[in-house]
Amino acid sequence: MKLFCRLYHELDSTTRTTDKVRALERYFRAAPPADAAWAISFLIGRRLPRGVTTTQLRQYAAEFANLPTWIVEECYEAVGDLAETLALLLPEPSESESIPLHVLIEERLLPLPRLGDEERRKILETTWRQLSGPERFLWHKLLTGGFRVGAGRTLTARALAAVAGVDPAVMSDRLMGPWQPTPTDYQRLLRGDAVEGDVGKPYPFLLAYPVEGPLETLGEIQDWQIEWKWDGIRAQIVNRGSKVLIWSRGEELISDQFPEVGQAALALSNSVVLDGEILIWGQHGPRPFSDLQKRLNRKRVTARDVRDYPAVFVAYDLLELDSQDRREEPLKRRRQLLEQLLSGWQVSGVLRLSPILELHQWSDVAVHHTLARECGAEGLMLKHRGSPYGVGRIKGVWWKWKVDPYYVDAVLINAQAGHGRRAGLYTDYTFAVWHEGRLIPIAKAYSGLTDDEIREVDAFIKENTVERFGPVRAVRPELVFELAFEGIQRSARHKSGIALRFPRMNRWRRDKRPEEADHLDRLRALLPPETDSR
């Protein structure tokens, strides 16, 4: 645990990519395989089931430190980070013992969900007696699923590649799929041995950069394949060994959530890997993302789910065919193979080919960009026809040009203190618009302001609080902000009857008075018609 703790500190104390990679490489060269395997799992974003709730954790810690719960709560509000709060409040360790990371995970964290309250408390108290303050901080992060540090899959793959003496793209391939955080699988990652279950693993995804500058700077339009940018879930269909697996970009198996897609893919020739997008499709085209959310994270998908929210897979790239990795072939050739694979053949329309927009000048591209929303897309994709399928974001290969967001002028009405770096500052805001003479909340947002603006708004909140609801402050409705958001949908859970997608603060409207903010009717006018699109 001490080595992992030192690694966390090194990663957290620099923004330089080269320093992060060096720190990771040093760790993997020094750490025992059993610890290194778990470190990789956490660094690339995998999480474990929670064995203790944050409420229980606060209660156990308060009793262990012989403190009233309200002091823990007040300190948490001031510090803004639960892991740090508890690490600071707990008494000094009474035992000096170096516990390996894998022991903490396998013998203490993983058993927690199966234990009763007293057994769970005993494990936590034993661990607190043995860990130092920095180690406790990380232990709490792992317990609550809040472990985040500026490394991620790409930098982890680079460091492991240096240790193994292979290309980073090769290591990225090895990190995909079903490997487990065990010493055996860690050694296999370094050596490149096949891991049990590799037959179903996906490839690392190629990602796009936002368009930069005028389209004309990209060169000849004939060199670019132009498609709609679909607003769904990026996924890969892996059909090998007469078994179909569907992987999300987040490396989660979602085959059970979309059984009709897997069933359709069984009809493909053996050993095929397709890259594309899962959408809910109605008679008139793609349905809103909110419909897709009704199929996500379901433990059991019913026939009614499939009927009411029919999923399709829109394929736009072919990565493997007849057991051959096709990623190094140019996009133009991969597209030809994809068209041949799907030409004249569909299973109830579940597998679809992403159409190419045949445009002959950049001005035509701009026109189609304005039509994206009415076509059920969120913008355009521009892909160089000569490009291979790489790993991660590669500038100049794929570009995404999203449609402009929607905007609304709203009034700040509530605020809550932030966490982590923003602890002690009021940075999480609730906004409202007018309806029938009063302000109705429509969204919460916490991003978009500069540090100077945050401090200025924080001072306003502290001076203009009119009421408190636990950690939330109601403030005088005087500040107006322009919110940007990607979409809008009906919502029975919200008082306003609507929910905004990805709201964030675009700018502070210092030129507007509260009474000049927008009205709810304007937002309702943006809602799609209430028609059955099945």
Assign the structural class, choosing from mainly alpha, mainly beta, alpha/beta, alpha+beta, or little secondary structure: alpha+beta
Number of domains: 3
Would you identify the regions where 5 or more consecutive residues have pLDDT less than 50?
none
Radius of gyration: 26 Å
- Head-to-tail CA distance between termini: 54 Å
CATH topology title of the largest domain: D-amino Acid Aminotransferase, Chain A, domain 1
Secondary structure: number of strands: 22
Q: Compute the number of helices.
A: 19
For the record, the CATH class of the largest domain is Alpha Beta
Helical content stands at 25-40%
The CATH architecture classification of the largest domain is 2-Layer Sandwich
**CATH level 4 superfamily of the largest domain:** DNA ligase/mRNA capping enzyme
Mean pLDDT: 90
- Main β-sheet description: 7 strands, mixed
Strand content: 15-25%
Shape, please? globular
